[in-house]
Amino acid sequence: MLEKDYKTLKEESNESISLLQARIKALIEAQKNLTYRRVILWKRCRRLEAAKRRLKRRMHERSKSHPNTFRMMEKGCYTAAARSLARLLVSTGTAEAKVGGALVEIGDALGVKVNRRVNRRSVQRFILEKGVAADIQLVYEIINSAKITYSSDSTSHRHIEYECRTIALQVVDYSDPDAKLEWKSRTLGIGTSINHASQTQVDGLKQRLRELGEVFNNSPLAKRKGLHFKPDDFAFRLIGTTGDHAADQKKSHEILRIWRLEVILMRLGEEALMGMDVGRCLATLIAMKAKQVESYGGQQKWDALSADEKAGADAQIIRDIGKQVFDALPQDHQERLTRFIRTGCCMHKDLNCVKGGAKAMAEMWTNLKKTPPRLLANKDNAAVLANRSSGTEPTAAEKRAEEVSKRGGVHATTLGGMIFRNKDTKKGQQDTYVWYMEKHIGHRVPYPDVSNTRYGSHGEAAAVILVYLSLFLSFMEAIRDAKDRPGETNIEKNFAAALKDIPTLTELCVLALYNIAVSRPFMQHVRTHENLLNLREFFEKKAAFLQSIVDKPALWTGDDVSHETGHLDGAEWDEWSLTVLAAIKGLKAQLPDLDEAVIAFVTGARETFVERFSDEFKEGGDIDKMTETELNTLYFSSTNDLNEGGLGSWRRGQARRPAETLLKFNASFMATRNETESFMTHKLTEEEDQIYLMRTARKRDESGHQNALKVAQIRADEEKIAENRKKEAQGKEKREKQANILMQAVKDLALTDVDIDKLKVDPLILQLECHREIEKLRLAAVNVDSVNGDSETAVEKIPLKSHMKNKSQRVPELKKAVIRFHARGETKETAYNLLSRALETIKSTGGDHLYESDNDDL
């Protein structure tokens, strides 16, 4: 049995060994094959690499002898690719005249022959094509958007008014049509304005919309899509405006609101008429038309109206129908339909809060009877005040010099800007200051640009001064002694003195504290949270935070200033803020009024913010009435940076390229800001689109647009001159008429009580006017200061007409004037001669200095 098992096992093991030997042999054979194949593949790769090198060498040699050609033109026109390349080079800073050569050089470097060198004029037209495309894009996006917000800003450059306009609307990403709509800002470009009036600004917007409509309506894209645009389409979609807090912006908002309401009524009227059957529609229109013709005075007068006047009257009929429809709507529906929101720029809010705080802090010194900051008088006023003797009564000139002279932290930082970073680069210390600081500190310390309008610059300047106070003092001594004739200018003397003045340093500390704790975090927050509608809680938080500082100024001035209670956002202090706090802490022992100054400043800033610059969220306002869902569908920019930046780009562009036209600037500016290249790539894809762009750009180039702007401005100036001259002539005629009336009245002066009591109201007023002018002229000849009220002794004068409401008040004043008349030894003849000379002065100078009265009845 065992022998049998052993034999079986031996057979199985021999079989296994045979199989393993066969497998080993097969693996050895496979290894040989793989080695052989690897060698073959390695040799093949070597041959391929060599062939590749030879091919590249042949291609390189061939490109030199027979280069590829990039054709700039096709069918007599520059290709879309060529025009796009030229625009790309210009956008990177290549001069238009150099674009043609640059394309040729780039082609040579890449082994491509550019077959034509484009000239400067063609490049300019390529740029204008972008402007045409940007106009088409704007209208296309407006038509496809349900809601629009509008903002604008203006500035003067070389005494011409310029305005930048921006809209915000929901658009789709053209590279991803299925993407969700997003709010985007689109600029309408920079335009000129003949004046700064609100109506002129709105008229300019309407004119710009008409220009956009003309370009779009004639475009192949509009015809393919079956779209048409008119300015009223913009107004219908407009839901509000954003801007600064100036009166002209608020008035423009109201004008736009009225325009939008008229458009809404027109739409309601048109919809109502379209919903009527023909008979009822005709009956309604005929009845209203008959009533309208009657209101104009009959058919004959109606026929005399111009076509535009008749069209306006017909439109009013439709609006009247729309008004009836509107009045029948529920109240909540009416409110939603007419809601028109206005928001203000948050950067201006902070700017005005600082102004309000600085004003309150300046008043604090007087209210608390404390020594105010040192007077920082200009050169002329300093000369007047230098001769003032202590213990003597100041003269009128000295009083006025002191009244108009400035003091305090803000004026000190302003003087610093004039010395260290003057906007005129030929004035002030400029790089001398920068290099001095770099030598002593190891890095540059640029002085904040207070000479120009920069948000938060005065607070930043105060912080810089405090941190490097000793270096500023030593630098002022250095520039004093570095002159050929050592000495200080008045500005330098004032600035150096301000840095040693405790009240001024106190104000600088408050400005710096407010800047690092409020202004900077506020501006950072509103710029990162771009929708102002989402800032209600942040505004409330700011008001509460400012109140906490008023209640406990030690949160800023204590020994341990915590970011949790001393910073608007509660965020950790950054390195610069800690440096500023350390500098203030080092000065605190010398500043006994620091807490009072903080309380005054923050109180003023808070009152300014709460009462004047956070009214967007006031109870019962448009935003307050909206639901959270409605708010989430709207967008209002938290700042006006886009418009201000656009105007800044125009000013800087004019400094670099003075001859650049507004048309060409707008083409590049709008296309860049509005991402027009993407629109052109995905929407203007047909050959007819490219032809339209080229033809329209050529027309614009030949239109004389820049000259038309100049002509319009000159015409407006001439009309203003003519209007002012007409007013001046009318005023002079009126003054002469008034003077002649007085001359006649002076002959009949009532110089006794009996005669005065007999006077009626009008003659009584004339008598008072005569005495008022006689006294004014007599006293002016003797003592001008007395007449102006600058002396200790007040001179009795006849009150203005508005201060004497009835005869019972006028008669006693006239009797007093007669007593003074006799006391001076006057007679009717001397009074007549005096007024005669004054009348001749009026005729020769056209002045109205004779009159102080507000009486317009003469």
Give the overall pLDDT as a whole number: 88
Terminal residue distance: 156 Å
Strand order in the sheet with the most strands: 7-6-5-8-9
Please summarize the sheet with the most strands: 5 strands, mixed
Radius of gyration: 40 Å
- Low-pLDDT segments, ≥5 res: 783-794, 847-858
Helix content: 55-70%
Number of helices: 37
How much of the residues is beta strand, in percent? Answer: 5-15%
The SS-based structural class is alpha/beta
Overall number of strands? 11
What does this structure look like?
The chain has 858 residues and is of the alpha/beta class. Among the domains are: 51 residues, no CATH class; 83 residues, no CATH class; 161 residues, no CATH class; 33 residues, no CATH class; 93 residues; 118 residues, no CATH class. The protein is built from 37 helices and eleven strands. The strands form four sheets. It has a five-stranded mixed beta sheet, sandwiched between helices. A two-stranded parallel sheet has the order 1-4. A two-stranded antiparallel sheet has the order 2-3. Helix 5 crosses helix 8 and helix 34 packs parallel to helix 36. It is extended and about 170 Å long.
Strand-helix topology:
Elements: H1 2-65, E1 68-70, E2 73-74, E3 77-78, H2 80-91, H3 99-109, E4 112-114, H4 120-143, E5 148-157, E6 160-171, E7 182-193, H5 198-217, H6 220-225, H7 231-237, E8 238-243, H8 247-275, H9 278-295, H10 299-303, H11 307-327, H12 331-338, E9 341-344, H13 346-367, E10 375-376, H14 379-386, H15 396-404, E11 406-407, H16 409-420, H17 431-441, H18 457-467, H19 469-481, H20 490-498, H21 502-528, H22 536-551, H23 554-557, H24 563-566, H25 575-587, H26 594-612, H27 628-632, H28 641-656, H29 662-673, H30 676-683, H31 687-701, H32 705-746, H33 753-758, H34 761-782, H35 784-787, H36 807-823, H37 828-845
Parallel strand pairs: 1-4, 5-8, 8-9
Antiparallel strand pairs: 2-3, 5-6, 6-7, 10-11
